[in-house]
């Protein structure tokens, strides 16, 4: 510092100078401290929110203010007990799942329970049954509003009622009204789903957890606490005090009273001799009554449903059946489900065709953070997979665009190296102008027909002009195939799926950096193996309504799955396409189709899915799409966004006013049910239950927000540092003025001395 | 001369900080003006119009509280980038006028500064990008933690939540959020249809009653 110089220069009024020096240092110290304070606050703010995000558990303090009844990971309180039994029957190409939920009310009050649960996206829910005592009430399909009205009415009238609604295509809610004190009500739903096939592996997935990405419905809600001050159940007294104890482990209700166990049984009738049958995430016991049948049960009885149940099976022989044809007659129409695995794999792997790949990477502002890291890692992996015979190019875009090479270049070490460093230098910034980038990627400059042309598009799809992008793809796709790679936790799935469909490619979603390699490898397996292209299906005699309407390309090991509604079961189904550069066709005589189950529902569910997509894409007017969906749903008895299943037990159960005094009388369980299994000594499942009291005066508005799912909607940070900065700035300016004034006065003081 | 340097440096840093803070406000103001124009064009064309060519978001709705003369254009998404320019519509929540809860969040010191003046019973008008108009009435408010908002996104009702940071006058950011809840009372097309379910009083909840005098506001 300059302090020593000044001290050496002028030593005469030593004391005076020292005082000033001290003051100066003091002022500087204050300024430095101020700056440090500002810096600290800024950094403190971010690190603070980072830590709290990790510990997103409910704090006792919050529980007091709201009416939360559960912990962050979904543990359920004592209030209503729930047991779940899942029974899956696989018959050939389809599987039928019966989910039985047991609602047991150990409290002294009449309650209503609402249970939110996940189902497979392709599942068509068509049956709702409510078992009360020895009575079984079968639900009817109704328009959503109407079903809700019926339910609300029954609830008010004190009748037991059950309602199944679709919240999202893969999230459903069951509500059960008027469960008496100590009473048990069974609610059973059934759904139909196609078996998934990939290569020679068949699989089913039973989702038991709602992924955080869906941010599903909220959880335990008990809005009116006035009446239950007396206490709920035996182990814990008051739900409010109970809430306070949820986050510390001491009195975790999940430990003191185990609830909501899930048991799973799979009856597997594959229709062919079975080889390996494997459960990926659960220990199972597998019985084999004969070569084509397996019965799979959980080895440890019921489990907490904290992960999805996944079962895969393979045929005994090395070759999977390459064709499957199933039919079902419902009403006056025949429904057909066809599986065809084209012969792609063997012939094609011998001589991989050289490819021209154009990679497009989105480096717009919305990709900032982990999305950009994932996108770069994916692209780096993709570049490393290129063969020297391939040609490639890289395009990056935000609201501007750069094309790395004027035209596609051979994928030699030098070019790949150049591309890799270009990619690793990308920064996320700016807007998202996707259309020019897509246009540039689709421009087929080489025009070399000896090469397969592929566009790999990495983006989060955060754009509003989807339609424009679709038009571009449709107009310019030529012989190019568009592969969409969705990046980040919430990519625009509609955009991706539709763009890939129009571009006759595939959609891959990468949600985390860990998934990059696995997902990109499977994408490349598709890219490297020429697909069966130009597919078309034709029925020789029957008039058919086929879904999907435009048949996408089929990649290695993937079967082509077609569902159709026919006016008569006659003639044959001919599927034509091209494998590599050779024409390929297969003819399936319809009279050889085997009897299948629930095919009409699968067809309807896919048609509804098509209509939903068309609606979202504004290809169909909202009203028109809704009309089509409603007609299909009512015809085929399927729960959709617009239809619900409702069951009402006409016998009034809850008397007006005086609550019934019932002791705990477990009802008779249906055959094959093991009470211990369902109510076994197992911890909670992270399923979500919300409840309210079946108070006749309760209005629908009572279900309103108040309590919180800690993983529900997270509110963003909504304070700017503007005021902090302005205040700090002002203080500094004032300080500077004071110092300046002090300095101006100092010469006078020195002179005077 | 050296004795002039430290006040000069201090003044410069001070000016810079002040300017930086003022810039945030200026950006918020200017952006709203541009957004206003883009939104009007959105309504006219029926297409999403970006307010400026390099924008990564687009206006989706206009919120107005006529009683206090407040208005703001809401952007799609609630990323930090978007929030600098206007209130953000949080992903995964419903659109205004749809079944479910629409959640809009904005900075307490810029676009949602007016929230402190909104009282229970105030009418909040929301105009959507497609030109449809929805009328909500504020019926409750609460202070919650950002990760325990208690907002029921998939509610059966037609609801709206405006969220901002709490407390209003704090200088640093904290975990608390102020949420103002409102329920649909009418639309431009059929002002009576949704009102039937929305107008049911819910006096037994912990919420402030629907009918409340301005004194009840927090």
UniProtKB/TrEMBL annotation, chain A:
Protein name: Marine proteobacterial sortase target protein
NCBIfam families: marine_srt_targ (TIGR03788)
SMART domains from the UniProt entry: VIT (SM00609), VWA (SM00327)
Pfam families from the UniProt entry: VIT (PF08487), VWA_3 (PF13768)
Record keyword Transmembrane helix present: yes
Classification via InterPro entries: CHP03788, VIT, VWF_A, vWFA_dom_sf
Segments traversing the membrane: 21-44, 724-742
Key words of the record: Membrane, Transmembrane, Transmembrane helix
Transmembrane helix is among the record's keywords: yes
Annotated ranges, domain VIT: 65-193
Location of the region described as Disordered in the Swiss-Prot/TrEMBL record: 230-258
Residue span(s) of domain VWFA: 356-527
Protein source organism: Bradyrhizobium frederickii
Stored PROSITE patterns: VIT, VWFA
């Amino acid at each position: 510092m300059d302090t020593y110089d000044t001290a050496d220069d002028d030593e005469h009024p030593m004391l005076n100078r020292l005082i000033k020096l001290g003051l100066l240092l003091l002022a500087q110290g204050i300024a430095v401290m101020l700056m440090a304070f500002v810096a600290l606050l800024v950094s403190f703010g971010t690190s603070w929110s980072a830590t709290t995000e990790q510990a997103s558990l409910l704090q006792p303090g919050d529980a007091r203010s709201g009416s939360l009844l559960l912990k962050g990971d979904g543990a359920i309180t004592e209030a209503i007990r729930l047991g779940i039994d899942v029974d899956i029957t696989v018959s050939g190409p389809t599987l039928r799942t019966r989910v039985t939920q047991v609602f047991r009310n150990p409290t002294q009050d009449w309650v209503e329970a609402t249970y939110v649960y996940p189902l497979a996206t392709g599942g068509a829910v068509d049956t709702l049954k409510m078992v009360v005592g020895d009575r079984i009430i079968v639900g009817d399909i109704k328009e959503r509003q109407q079903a809700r009205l019926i339910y609300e009415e029954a609830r008010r009238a004190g009748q037991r009622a059950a309602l199944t609604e679709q919240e999202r295509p893969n999230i459903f809610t069951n509500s059960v009204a008027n469960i008496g004190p100590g009473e048990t009500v069974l609610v059973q739903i059934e759904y139909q789903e196609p078996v998934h096939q990939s290569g020679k592996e068949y699989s089913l997935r039973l989702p038991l957890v709602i992924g955080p990405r869906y941010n599903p419905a909220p959880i335990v809600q008990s809005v009116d606490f006035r009446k239950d001050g007396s206490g709920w159940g035996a182990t814990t007294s008051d739900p409010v005090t109970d809430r306070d104890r949820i986050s510390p482990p001491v009195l975790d209700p999940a430990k003191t009273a185990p609830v909501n166990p899930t048991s799973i049984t799979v009856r597997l009738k594959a229709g062919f001799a079975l080889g390996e049958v494997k459960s990926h995430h659960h220990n199972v016991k597998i019985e084999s009554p004969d070569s084509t049948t397996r019965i799979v049960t959980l080895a440890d009885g019921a489990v907490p449903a904290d992960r999805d149940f996944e079962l895969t099976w393979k045929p005994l022989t090395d070759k999977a059946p390459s064709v499957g044809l199933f039919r079902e007659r419902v009403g006056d129409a025949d429904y057909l489900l066809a599986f065809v695995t084209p012969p792609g794999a063997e012939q094609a792997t011998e001589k991989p065709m050289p490819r021209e790949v154009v990679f497009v990477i989105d480096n717009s502002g919305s990709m900032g953070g982990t999305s950009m890291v994932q996108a770069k890692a994916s692209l780096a992996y993709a570049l490393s997979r290129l063969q020297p015979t391939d040609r490639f190019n890289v395009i990056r875009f935000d609201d501007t665009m750069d094309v790395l090479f004027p035209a596609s270049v051979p994928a030699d070490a030098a070019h790949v190296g150049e591309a890799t460093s270009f990619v690793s230098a990308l920064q996320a910034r700016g807007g998202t102008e996707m259309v020019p980038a897509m246009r540039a990627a689709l421009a087929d400059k080489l025009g070399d027909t000896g090469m397969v042309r592929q566009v790999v598009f990495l983006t989060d799809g955060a754009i509003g002009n989807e339609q424009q992008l679709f038009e571009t793809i449709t107009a310019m796709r030529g012989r190019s195939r568009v592969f969409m790679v969705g990046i980040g936790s919430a990519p625009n799935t509609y955009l991706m799926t539709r763009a890939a469909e129009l571009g006759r490619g595939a959609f891959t979603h990468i949600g985390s950096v860990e998934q990059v390699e696995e997902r990109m490898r499977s994408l490349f397996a598709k890219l490297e193996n020429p697909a069966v292209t130009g597919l078309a299906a034709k029925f020789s005699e029957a008039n058919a309504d086929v879904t999907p309407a435009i048949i996408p390309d089929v990649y290695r090991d993937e079967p082509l799955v077609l569902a159709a509604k026919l006016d008569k079961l006659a003639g044959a189904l001919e599927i034509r396409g091209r494998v590599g550069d050779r024409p390929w066709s297969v003819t399936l005589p319809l009279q050889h189709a085997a009897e299948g189950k629930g095919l009409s529902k699968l067809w309807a569910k896919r048609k509804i899915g098509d209509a939903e997509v068309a609606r979202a894409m504004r290809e169909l007017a909202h009203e028109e799409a809704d009309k089509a969906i409603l007609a299909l749903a009512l015809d085929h008895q399927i729960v959709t966004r617009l239809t619900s299943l409702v069951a009402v037990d006409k016998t009034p159960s809850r008397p007006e006013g005086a609550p019934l005094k019932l002791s705990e009388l477990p009802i008779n369980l249906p055959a094959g049910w093991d009470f211990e299994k369902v109510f076994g000594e197992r911890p909670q499942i992270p399923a979500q239950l919300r409840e309210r009291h079946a108070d006749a005066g309760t209005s629908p508005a009572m279900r309103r927000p108040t309590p919180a799912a800690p993983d529900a909607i997270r509110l963003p940070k909504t304070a700017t540092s503007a005021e902090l900065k302005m205040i700090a700035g002002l203080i500094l300016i004032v300080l500077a003025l004071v110092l300046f004034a002090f300095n101006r006065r100092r010469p006078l003081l020195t002179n005077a001395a | 001369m050296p004795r002039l340097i430290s006040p000069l440096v201090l003044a410069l840093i001070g000016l810079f900080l002040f300017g930086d803070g003022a810039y945030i406000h200026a950006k918020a103001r200017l952006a709203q003006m541009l957004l206003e124009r883009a939104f009007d064009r959105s309504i006219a064309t029926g297409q999403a119009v970006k307010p400026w060519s390099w924008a990564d978001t687009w206006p989706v709705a206009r919120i107005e509280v006529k009683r206090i003369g407040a208005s703001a254009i809401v952007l799609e998404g609630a990323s930090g980038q978007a929030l600098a320019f206007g209130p953000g519509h949080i992903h995964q929540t419903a659109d205004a006028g749809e079944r479910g809860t629409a959640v809009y969040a904005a900075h307490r010191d810029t676009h949602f500064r007016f929230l402190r003046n909104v009282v229970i019973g105030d009418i909040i008008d929301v105009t959507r990008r497609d030109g449809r108009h929805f009328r909500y009435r504020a019926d409750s408010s609460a202070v919650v933690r950002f990760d325990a908002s208690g907002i029921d996104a998939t509610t059966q009702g037609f609801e709206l939540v405006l969220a901002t940071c709490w407390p209003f006058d704090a200088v640093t950011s904290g975990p608390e959020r102020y949420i103002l809840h409102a329920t649909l009372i009418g639309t431009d097309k059929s002002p009576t249809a949704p009102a039937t379910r929305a107008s049911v009083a819910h006096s037994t909840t912990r919420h402030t009653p629907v009918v409340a005098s301005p004194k009840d506001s927090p």
